[in-house]
Amino acid sequence: MHGVERVGVIGSGQMGGGIAQVAAQSGFETVVYDLDAAALGKCKSLHEKLFARAVEKGRMTEDQVKETKARLTYSDQLTDVHPADIVIEAVVEKAEVKKEIFKGLAGSVSDRAILASNTSSISITDLATSVGDKADRFIGMHFFNPVPVMKLVEVINGLATSKETTERVLALAEAMGKTAVPANDRAGFVSNRILMPMINEAFYTWMEGVAEPEHIDEIMKLGMAHPMGPLRLADFIGLDTCAHIMEVMADGLSDPRYLPCPLLKQLVTAGRLGDKTKHGVFRYE
Ligand code: 3HC
To answer: Does the beta carbon of 227 lie inside 6 Å of ligand 1?
Structure first.
């Protein structure tokens, strides 16, 4: 059993907000923390919108929304996550920033609390060095965007993660309505190790003039039954994120074949980051 009643989430962006929403909807007392009050406000209004949509679609009743909201707290005080039985971090993909957060948490959470990172590619073993003798309770819990919709949680064991921690997190992810699949700690884990080279190859295909971006996407959507083409998906994930994950893999796997395509890097340099800047491979209104 997972032994979790209270979930703390660090970061109220797309991923953190989604994780907090799913945790609260699954019956857990949930605190989502962000030092940026404006980001917390945005997260709360997105939740309101999604709850209203769920009622409209008959997926939740008004009472269920009320109960879920009562379980969900938005806080800009880090101490509010300290009583949590698991803290799931979903902040910017920078190892130093994550380590600083975990270092602080390690001394403040209970002895049985699990410390989890939603990192998409940074080494769990490396992040775990920030929590001293709590490394056995440190684990990767990799959710997928949009969190309320995507079924998978990739559960990543660092070198020191205990079997008990893995089992608790697998059970917790299932209790959150997800399918949990374990993987070991190598840069990119399984999901991004396979997804990102495909996306990178789509940029090379475009750069070499093999086809127009919309045609590349159409071929992959219709021929491979992907819900989004790789270039549309790159915009959805963020071109900066895709390039960063490729770099983490090139470094972590010591292999230059994972380096980001020059065209992908160029778009990032130009500030064309995808959906979030309304212009990436494609333009968005
Ligand atoms: N939050 C909550 N629900 C959302 C949502 C969001 N952000 N976005 C879409 N949905 C819901 C919609 O409400 C809708 O449900 P409803 O009609 O019953 O209300 C349902 O999802 C379908 O949405 P749409 O009809 O608007 O659009 P689509 O049918 O095109 O689906 C999609 C959108 C679910 C995003 C689909 O295109 C898809 O599955 N795309 C692939 C996503 C993917 O591959 N994600 C993984 C990215 S990689 C990653 O996250 C890892 C990281 O490490 C990089």
So the answer is: yes
